[in-house]
Amino acid sequence: MKTGIITGASSGIGLSIARKLISKGYKIYGIARSFENTNYSDKNFIRIVCDVSDIPNVTKGIKEILSSGDQISLLINNAGVGYFGPHEDSKIESLEEMVKTNLLAPVIITKLLLKELKKNSGYLIFISSITALRPSPVGAAYSATKAGLTKFSESLFDEVRKTGVKVITIHPDMTKSNFYDELDFKEDDDPECHIAPESISDAVEMILNQKPGTVISEITIRPQKHRIEKKKRSKN
Length: 236
Description:
By secondary structure, the chain is of the alpha/beta class. It is built from five helices and nine strands.
């Protein structure tokens, strides 16, 4: 049985990818801070409760997975967090969390699993963001972490391609998920103004279905229209 690891697997993009891959015969270790609101269970969906921004804890978790004896052939670095607003107003704690979650954790998790992925000629997929490719007013730090992730992925592809490891970056635009729960804006309800998580999981399936020797190294997924919705603030 093919086995993979997905971070941020409790909802949204991560859970959609997990469900898709399990339906295709994969065993998935899903890593997330909490699965309390995850309405999905399967014998091949192994829940690992872990905050990836806690580097010592996630390092321990990955080493425990490796000690299980499962042959890991897929890693999807999906976990992400974003805070938006003028940079001078940003909280230092929020900046630190974004750097750790969006960039440092994927770099370290990849380091821990790279030898295993080389052994199995595996797939390494990074869920970056459209903001990695263009300026992001009131999201400078977030876009910087995603641009760093994209550049890491591009460079790693050239470093390991001769070993058989396939390295892919996906750049989703605004996606309908709980990413926006704590923000003051969200995706517009018009289906043409946002991406469904299933669009990303379909892209992952397409990546995995390429003939041997062919790699789709980068995918950008955007809605037909561009429109966001500002949330109404409740009156005290």
